[in-house]
Structures are given as structure tokens and as C-alpha cells.
Design goal:
The complex is a heterotrimer of chains A (about 425), B (about 270) and C (about 325). Helices cover about 45% and strands about 15% of the residues of chain A. Chain A has about 425 residues and is of the alpha+beta class. Chain A has two domains: about 180 residues, D-Maltodextrin-Binding Protein, domain 2 (3-Layer(aba) Sandwich), CATH 3.40.190.10; about 190 residues, 3-Layer(aba) Sandwich (D-Maltodextrin-Binding Protein, domain 2). The chains are: A alpha+beta (about 425), B mainly alpha (about 270), C mainly alpha (about 325). Chains B and C meet through helix 1, helix 4, helix 5, helix 6 and helix 7 of B and helix 1, helix 2, helix 3, helix 5 and helix 6 of C.
Chain lengths: ~425, ~270, ~325
């Protein structure tokens, strides 16, 4: 009898739970931030992608809190997306559950604009000139209108171990890729268990620019269409060179074909890698992990290729307001707040990025973090950057990991560089054509 | 002598089974409390000399408690609803000779072999239109699709086991059928309910594909998604990732250990019937 | 009134008849209405979140679909497209090989474990809890742990292979930079996760085979091996078939381990891309719901075919 009563009690609990669930369903769990009155009140969601080092989350959180404190009755909910950020955005755009404001990769901006997901920021992009760094405005434009505010640029440069380079009799960082290869081999011969160069097979940002360095192009415009140049001799040679660093010269463990920057950061932090291509955010991550490396690390602009240049990506992020945001008053106001020099500089200087507004950039270069010796190389490298083709469907190329797959298939020996790059060109053409 | 040999061999086999079952648990736990200096060593260290709980305190300060709560809400709701739905349906299938019983059985069986990928797209649009995206209700509903079929079968076989006479006696006493079911069948179906609950709870708690697709807001994110994202960004922080995995694993293991006796009973009686 | 009559009758009428009468219920209302009331929630779930989506997916597979919106009707074009796509056919073959490896290993290991448990009756209770435990570890967590154990530099697997088995070539061996070893590592993780349920079920089945027949055979001098092969395994054959079916379905649907353990998902260079992962990426990374729907339908048909095949096999064997 007792058992039965007990059971009855549990059933009651169960039914209660089910009922509560049903009630909650009626109540609706959607955000209560809806606000169309234009008043600065209510809640907005603010998303951002792949974290740039450990410092990003606390700083962004502080800015969100500051904003809410300055505007009583508002709240900014943060969400940090992982490596799958691009996919998460696409899914939420398709599902109609977008955030109000997002810090998105600049290569995604035309794509999201083409999906009709973003609010127009400026009907005439020319009005942005003067306020923002010229190269950065371009990435916000889709069909003649600007859909986002340029926020920051990040460039990569060479990070190396001064002490190891000195030990092989070199005082300066390698100036060409060939020299880098030789130095790395020499260091590796001298230091057991040290990787000469940190290879990053899992992220295309680290080797796609080599195509430029070899004198090639990623894509060329013909008429109003873009045609991939990935199959060109220069492209094939560039990818072959990077792959050989791993497969022939063994400058990193075999697993490096799937490494991303975080792996190399870790390896450098553990003193097991001598050189890497990395952003200043990588440098900060390494130093945070192993502060004792401070005096041993050096930075320099990237080495040049046979094409005579050392151009790299103008990576970076834009702040965008989504069209389906239900509290645009707060969203726009928050964007304004984020773009002031006082709020922008702490972020960029702590993350090691260059701000995209002219006044903030001037301050950073003169007295800010990029005046420090270790970070000067980044400011210098910023003058040697290019953009990827400004087409809406470039996101598909990144989304399908086509470039990474091409590199990995060369590294694994599954395909020759010729075949892999021809296939890549086809895939890119299919996506952007 | 041969018997001694036999026992020795058996002991060895048992040892191998135990170690290979438990080692990943042990390794997860050990990794989560090792300081980095002991973690990244070419020769793995099986004993921690200076354990640290820093990673746990750090994680518990973050979003993990919320995600934990979210997962618990969805898993408990799924478990309770599955239990109710499957017990009622299992009873009906066991006690009534419905003419459509065979069709029903086939239909329920088919739900069990559906790939999740065939459900994921339409449910996305369905939930979008019904405003169920980013809600616990939506995710719970999608999890029911994965659990009710097998649980109905489990419970049907339990109800069949319950001697009909008991129920009959109650009916004869003038109780209505509902009362009889309520007071006789439900209490006796406990082991079956326990087995189906573990199944439902574990299925829901672990589920990744639906959760990753339908839950797009930080406040309602569940653990599998959070862990997968955390891992994809911070995978080089093996200690932190392992600590998060431990937190994720604990509830299932506890729940499992609580009901394991009933579960074994359930599986045994299920196995008898094949 | 009614009850007294029934009580008087109950002892005289045979049980089957009584049962039947009771089943038919006191009122037509109860007989007609009650079972359906009991079944209604289940049917609602089946129709709403299973039936409708399946029908919808089949429908969508005949339409073009970009950005998760339905485009024009294209007939069988999506099916033609996916079968012309080498990545899809590659994934189809890969998933099938993977499933075969997982199922065979799972069944053999489970059977071995079940026999060990059966041979150690006193420890069996505690042991089966231990054996079942990996089933309780969330798949995402187990994928992460195994990835860590298979780490090239600091992984315990490589260390074990080098130091215990003297296989020096595994020093720093990278499991995840080419397809085959990556698939092996993932197979190990998936098998570790799927063995427990099967092993404990088989053990429960084996325990039920102790009885007069086995005893008689033993008295007749049959060896333990003979008894196992000739009597006990045939007795649990239906269970074996069910378990094979279940693990086949599970293996074909593997998703979590692949998403967690490979970089990028399905990489390197598509070499670990399996059907469920490819379908999901097609839908939610490429946003091409037409092709994704077609892929889902094909997988469903394959699983249905496999199940029917197993059921057939089982029936013929029994005959």
C-alpha cells in the first residue's frame, strides 16, 4: 500500500511537470525585448564569433555591462560562438532567430547582406570615408550600399624565437619564404624536439595569401563575374611549397595538417616551436601561457615570396545590425557606443587588433599598444594587405572548407598539387560564379 | 590445476573488461585536475601530484550552470512525458486486441529506425513557423520523436508480464478500468518505467544534432552543444575541456547508478523475449 | 448486481474466455474509446514530430532548395545530383564500411564479454553495471576523451603502443591527419560506446539459456564449446539478430563522434565524411535543403532495407 502511495505522489509530480511545460508553451519563451517606440529601453542580443584569445570575453562583457549601466532599463546579452560561427549565423538567419547586433567576419558581410539579413548602415558608402580606414569600408559594401560598420582589422605577421635564431647565427628574421625554410631546418637540426615552423593546415588564412606572394591571384574579375585563379602555376607552386614544409621538411608533426592557430600557440608556449605566422592575438595568447618567453620572442613582417611581395589578408570584423532585430533603437545606439574611441581602443589594444576608425588607429599607432616594439611589425604589415574577392557567395567557399580540404589533400599525398588546385578552382567558380 | 588456470584466465579477462570500460572515465577525471605542467608530457602521468580544481571553479563561474539547468529541464521533461505516453500506449497494445495492432507495431518500429537527419529539416521549419525554435518545448518535442517508440515497446512487454488476474480482481471489485490501471498496473510496471526512463533521459541528455540546430540562444543552450562549441574553440585547453566533460557526464552516471538495478531487470526481461 | 454474477461465474468459466469477456469491457464505450485514448498521445507524437517531418522531407527532396527555402519542383534532379557527387558516393561507401566494422566488432566483443560475465556468475551483477557504464557517458564527452587519448603528442594510446607493444612507428603518430587512421580511431570510440548495451543484453539472453536442455547435454558429455555452439547460441539467435539490427542502425546514424573528433568536420579533405554529417552540413552549412532531403531519404531507405533483410534472415533461420 505504501509503495502505491509513493507512486501516486510521483505521478502527481510528473503530471505537474508536464502541465508546467504546457503552460510555459502557451506563455511563449521568446525575448521580451521587443520595442518599436524608439525609446532606449529593453534587451538586445549581441553575438560574436571565434574568440580571439582569452582576453575577448571579459572585455566584451565589461562593455556590455557599461552600456547597461549608462542606459538604465537596457541589457545586452552576449553570446560567443565557437569555430562553427558561420554556420550558426546561417542557421539562425534561416530560422529567423537572429541577434540584434553581431560582430561578424568581414568576408561574411556581403553574404549576409545578400541573404537580406542585415540592416543598411549607409546608403552611400562614400559618407563613411574620413571616419573609417579606407580598406575596411570595402568589406561592408554589397550592391552599392554599406551594411555594417567596420570595427577592427587583424593582420598576421611572423612570430619567432630570437634565441633560437641567434643560435644558428642569424640576427634578423627571414625575409623570404625560402630563407624561412632554411632557417627552420637549421633550428630543427640544432634543437631536438623543436618544430622549425608551426604549420597550420586546418585554417586557410595561413596559406591562401602565399598565392599572392608567389605572384598569383585568388580570383580575377572578368566582366561582372569572378573567375578563380587557384589553378594557376603560381597558386599550385605556392600550395606545393607550404605542403612540402610539412611533408618533405617535416617542420611540424604530421598532425599539423589539421592544426589550427591554437595548436601552434600551445606548441610555442611549450617551447616546442620556433617560428609561426600569427596575429598579435596569438602573440598575447602565447605570452599569457608562458610569460617567461617575453624576452625570447620577436616579431617581423611576413617573408616575401618569389612574386616579390609579402601581402596578407586584411582580416577583420564588422559590427552589423540585423534586419529582424526587434529593438533597433537600442541596437543602433549600442553600435554607436561601441564605435567611440574610448570604447574601441581598449578592445583592440587588449586583443591586439587594429581599430577601423581613423582617430582610434592614430592613437594606437602613436601611443597605443602598437607602438610597443613587439607589436610594431603588425602596424607595418597592415600596409601590405589585400582583400579576398568581394562576392556574396565567398562565404560558401569558406563554409565548405574547400581551401582547407585542397591543402590537406596535397599534404596527405592523396592528390597532386596540380589536381587538387584545379579541383579547388572548379569549386570556387561554382560557388562564386 | 586446470581449474586454477581457468580461474586465472577468467580473472585476467575480467580485469581487461573492467579496465577498458572504466579507463576513459578515469582519464577524463585525472586530466581535468592535472595542472598543465603535468598534462603535456610525452610520458603520460597516471597519478596527479598536485591536483587543481581551478578549472572547475572557473567553469562554474561561467555559463555551465545555466546550460546544465537547461539540459536538465529538457531531459526531465522528455523522460516524464515519454514515460506517460509510452506506458499508456504500451498498456493499450498489451491489453486490447486491436485490429490495427500489427500496423501500429510496424509504425512504431519504423520510428525507431528513422535517421535523425530525415527529421531535422522539416522540424526546423515546423518549429520556426510555430514559434518553437529556441524553446524548451520545441526541443523536448523533437526528443520525444527519438524516445517514445522504443519505450512503448519496452513497457508493452512489461504490461504483458503483469498477471491479468490482479487487474481482473480490481475490476471485479467494481473499480473502473482506469482505476485498475492506475492502482495495479502502473505500480507493477516500475522496472519497465525505470528502464525506459534511463533510455529517455540518456537519449535526451546526449542529443546533439537537434539541440545544435534548434537552440540558438545562449540562455537556453544545452550542454552537448555548449561542450561541442567550447571544444571547437578551446580544444588545446585539454584540462578545461575535460573538466567540462566531467560536469556533463556526472548526472547521467548518477541517474544510471540509481536505477541500474531496475534497468538490468528491464533489459533481462526484454532479452528473454528477444 | 452485475459484480455478484460475474464473481459467481468466474470460477466456472475458463480463463481465456474470462479474459476475453473482460477485454471486451463492460461497455462498448470503454472498449472502443479507451484504448484509443491511451494511444492518442503516442499517435500525436508519431504523426506530429515523426510522420509529418518524414512526409515533408520526401516532398522537399523533389524541390530545389536554397537558403532553407523551397524552390521550384525539380523531380528527381536532387537524387541525380547527389549520386553524381563523388563526395556523396564516397561518404556512402565510407559509412557502409564503417558500419560493417562497427557492427562486427561490437557483436563479437559483446558476445565475448557476455560469455565472460556468464562464466563469472558471482561477480556478474557488479560487472554488468561496470560494463554498461560507458553507455551512460555522453557521446560528445566520449568523443572528446578519445580524441585526447589518440592525441599524437601527449596521447595515452600512442604511448601504450610504443612502450607496451614496442611499436616505435607510433611515436608521435598522427591519427587524425589522414582518413584511414582517423576512421580507425573513431571506430574505436564508437565501439566503446555501443558495446555496453549489446553486451549486457546478450548476457541477459545467455543467462536465460541455462536449463534442462543444457543440463542434459552436459550429462551426455558435451563440451562447453559444443553446448555453446549447438544449443545456447541458437537459442539467443533472435536476440543476436535484434542487436545486429540495432547496432547497424546506430552505426549508420553516427554523428556526434564525427562532429567532435574531426577538423574540419568530416576532414581532413572529406576523408571522414559520413552520411549523417554530410546531410546535416548540406542542410545547415550549405543551406541546400533539397539535396539534404534527398540524402536523408536515401539513408532512410537503406536502413529500412537493412532491417527488412535482418527480419527475413531471422525468420528463415527459425524455420
Amino acid at each position: 500500500m505504501r509503495a502505491r502511495n509513493l507512486w501516486r505522489g510521483r505521478v502527481a509530480v510528473a503530471i505537474g511537470l508536464a502541465g508546467a511545460l504546457a503552460l510555459a508553451a502557451c506563455g511563449g519563451a521568446s525575448d521580451s525585448g521587443a520595442n518599436s517606440s524608439g525609446e532606449i529601453k529593453g534587451t538586445i542580443d549581441f553575438w560574436m564569433g571565434d574568440p580571439i584569445g582569452d582576453a575577448q570575453q571579459p572585455i566584451m562583457q565589461k562593455l556590455a555591462d557599461d552600456y547597461a549601466a549608462a542606459h538604465p532599463g537596457t541589457k545586452v546579452n552576449l553570446r560567443f560562438l565557437g569555430k562553427d560561427a558561420h554556420q550558426t549565423y546561417l542557421t539562425s538567419i534561416a530560422g529567423g532567430s537572429v541577434p540584434c547586433v553581431a560582430l561578424i567576419g568581414n568576408t561574411w558581410t556581403p553574404e549576409f547582406a545578400a541573404l537580406n539579413a542585415l540592416e543598411v548602415y549607409a546608403n552611400d558608402p562614400k559618407t563613411l570615408q574620413g571616419t573609417y580606414v579606407p580598406g575596411m569600408i570595402e568589406s561592408t559594401i554589397f550592391k552599392g550600399k554599406s551594411y555594417a560598420v567596420p570595427y577592427d582589422t587583424g593582420v598576421r605577421a611572423l612570430i619567432y624565437r630570437k634565441d633560437m635564431l641567434e643560435a644558428i647565427g642569424k640576427t634578423a628574421a627571414p625575409a623570404t619564404w625560402q630563407e624561412l625554410r632554411e632557417d627552420a631546418l637549421a633550428i630543427q637540426a640544432k634543437n631536438q624536439g623543436v618544430n622549425g615552423f608551426g604549420i597550420i593546415g586546418g585554417a586557410h588564412w595561413y596559406y591562401l595569401p602565399l598565392i599572392w606572394n608567389w605572384g598569383g591571384e585568388i580570383a580575377k574579375q572578368s566582366g561582372d563575374k569572378w573567375v578563380s585563379e587557384a589553378g594557376s602555376t603560381q597558386s599550385v607552386q605556392a600550395f606545393q611549397f607550404y605542403s612540402d614544409l610539412l611533408t618533405k621538411d617535416r617542420l611540424s608533426p604530421a598532425g599539423a595538417s589539421a592544426w589550427t592557430a591554437a595548436d601552434v600557440d600551445k606548441s610555442m608556449g611549450l617551447g616546442q616551436t620556433a617560428m609561426m605566422v600569427g596575429g598579435s592575438w596569438d602573440l598575447r595568447t602565447i605570452l599569457k601561457q608562458s610569460p617567461d618567453l617575453e624576452g625570447k620572442l620577436g616579431t617581423a613582417v611576413l617573408p616575401k615570396g618569389p612574386g616579390g611581395n609579402n601581402d596578407t589578408f586584411a582580416g577583420g570584423s564588422n559590427l552589423a545590425v540585423f534586419r529582424e532585430c526587434n529593438n533597433k533603437a537600442v541596437a543602433n545606439d549600442f553600435v554607436k557606443f561601441m564605435m567611440t574611441k574610448e570604447n574601441l581602443v581598449p578592445v583592440t589594444s587588449n586583443l591586439g587588433l587594429l581599430p577601423a576608425t581613423n582617430d582610434a588607429l592614430a592613437q594606437e599607432k602613436a601611443t597605443g599598444s602598437f607602438s610597443a616594439p613587439l607589436f610594431k611589425a603588425y602596424a607595418e604589415q597592415a600596409d601590405h594587405t589585400r582583400s579576398i574577392p568581394p562576392v556574396a557567395s565567398w562565404g560558401k567557399v569558406e563554409g565548405a572548407n574547400s581551401i582547407v580540404n585542397a591543402m590537406q589533400s596535397i599534404m596527405s599525398g592523396k592528390k597532386t598539387a596540380d589536381v587538387a588546385m584545379k579541383e579547388l578552382a572548379d569549386q570556387v567558380n561554382q560557388a562564386i560564379g | 590445476m586446470t581449474s586454477l588456470l581457468r580461474r586465472g584466465a577468467l580473472f585476467l579477462l575480467v580485469a581487461v573488461i573492467v579496465v577498458s570500460s572504466l579507463f576513459p572515465f578515469f582519464w577524463m577525471l585525472v586530466t581535468s585536475v592535472k595542472p598543465d605542467s603535468e598534462l603535456f608530457t610525452r610520458t603520460p602521468r597516471f597519478i596527479v601530484t598536485s591536483p587543481t580544481v581551478e578549472r572547475y571553479t572557473h567553469l562554474l563561474d561561467g555559463n555551465i550552470p545555466t546550460q546544465f539547468r537547461n539540459s536538465l529541464i529538457v531531459a526531465v521533461a522528455t523522460t516524464v512525458l515519454t514515460g506517460l505516453i509510452a506506458l499508456l500506449a504500451g498498456y493499450a497494445l498489451a491489453r486490447y486486441r486491436l485490429r490495427t495492432r500489427h500496423i501500429l507495431t510496424v509504425v512504431i518500429l519504423v520510428t525507431q529506425l528513422l535517421p535523425q537527419t530525415i527529421l531535422v529539416i522539416p522540424l526546423f521549419t515546423l518549429f520556426r513557423n510555430a514559434g518553437l525554435l529556441n524553446t524548451f518545448q520545441g526541443l523536448t518535442l523533437s526528443h520525444l520523436a527519438l524516445t517514445v517508440g522504443l519505450c512503448t515497446f519496452m513497457l508493452r512487454s512489461f504490461v504483458v508480464e503483469i498477471p491479468f488476474e490482479l487487474e481482473e480482481a480490481a475490476l471485479v471489485d467494481g473499480a473502473s478500468r482506469l482505476r485498475a490501471v492506475w492502482s495495479i498496473v502502473f505500480p507493477l510496471a516500475w522496472p519497465g518505467l525505470a528502464a525506459s526512463s534511463v533510455y529517455a533521459f540518456i537519449t535526451s541528455w546526449n542529443e546533439l544534432m537537434f539541440s545544435a540546430t534548434y537552440m540558438q540562444r545562449p540562455a537556453i543552450e544545452t550542454l552537448p552543444v555548449a561542450l561541442q562549441q567550447y571544444f571547437s574553440s578551446y580544444y588545446t585547453d585539454w584540462g578545461g575541456v575535460m573538466a567540462a566533460s566531467v560536469i556533463f557526464t556526472i548526472p547521467v552516471v548518477i541517474f544510471f547508478l540509481i536505477v541500474q538495478k531496475r534497468l538490468m531487470q528491464g533489459m533481462a526481461s526484454g532479452a528473454m523475449k528477444g | 448486481m452485475k459484480t455478484t454474477i460475474r464473481r459467481a461465474a468466474s470460477s466456472a468459466i475458463p480463463r481465456a474466455l474470462r479474459e476475453r469477456r473482460l477485454l471486451q469491457g463492460q461497455q462498448g464505450f470503454e472498449r472502443r474509446f479507451l484504448p484509443w485514448a491511451f494511444l492518442a498521445p503516442l499517435l500525436a507524437v508519431i504523426v506530429g514530430v515523426v510522420g509529418y517531418p518524414v512526409a515533408r522531407t520526401i516532398w522537399l527532396s523533389f524541390f530545389d532548395g536554397e537558403y532553407l527555402q523551397s524552390g521550384p519542383f525539380v523531380g528527381l534532379q536532387n537524387y541525380r545530383d547527389i549520386f553524381a557527387d563523388p563526395y556523396y558516393t564516397g561518404a556512402l561507401v565510407r559509412t557502409t564500411l564503417f558500419a560493417a566494422a562497427v557492427v562486427v566488432t561490437t557483436i563479437l566483443l559483446s558476445l565475448a564479454i557476455a560469455l565472460v560475465l556468464d562464466a563469472a556468475p558471482r561477480a556478474a551483477r557488479v560487472l554488468s553495471v561496470i560494463v554498461l557504464l560507458p553507455w551512460a557517458m555522453p557521446r560528445v564527452a566520449s568523443g572528446i576523451v578519445w580524441k585526447w587519448m589518440f592525441d599524437d603528442q601527449y596521447g595515452v594510446v600512442n604511448w601504450l603502443l610504443v612502450n607496451w607493444f614496442g611499436l616505435d612507428s607510433f611515436n608521435g603518430y598522427s591519427w587524425f591527419s589522414t582518413g584511414t587512421p582517423a576512421m580507425v580511431a573513431i571506430t574505436v570510440a564508437v565501439v566503446w560506446h555501443s558495446v555496453p548495451f549489446v553486451a549486457v543484453s546478450l548476457f541477459a539472453g545467455l543467462r536465460g539459456t541455462h536449463g534442462e536442455v543444457v543440463e542434459a547435454a552436459r550429462v551426455d558429455g558435451a563440451s562447453a564449446w559444443q553446448i555453446l555452439r549447438r544449443i545456447r547460441l541458437p537459442m539467443i539467435r533472435p536476440l543476436l539478430v535484434v542487436m545486429t539490427t540495432i547496432s547497424t542502425i546506430w552505426a549508420y546514424q553516427s554523428f556526434d563522434h564525427f562532429l567532435v573528433m574531426t577538423t574540419p568536420p568530416g576532414g581532413p579533405d572529406h576523408s571522414t565524411e559520413v552520411l549523417s554529417l554530410l546531410t546535416w552540413l548540406e542542410a545547415f552549412a550549405q543551406l541546400d535543403q533539397g539535396s539534404a532531403a534527398a540524402m536523408a531519404v536515401v539513408l532512410f531507405l537503406m536502413l529500412a532495407a537493412v532491417s527488412v533483410l535482418y527480419v527475413r534472415l531471422n525468420r528463415e533461420d527459425v524455420r
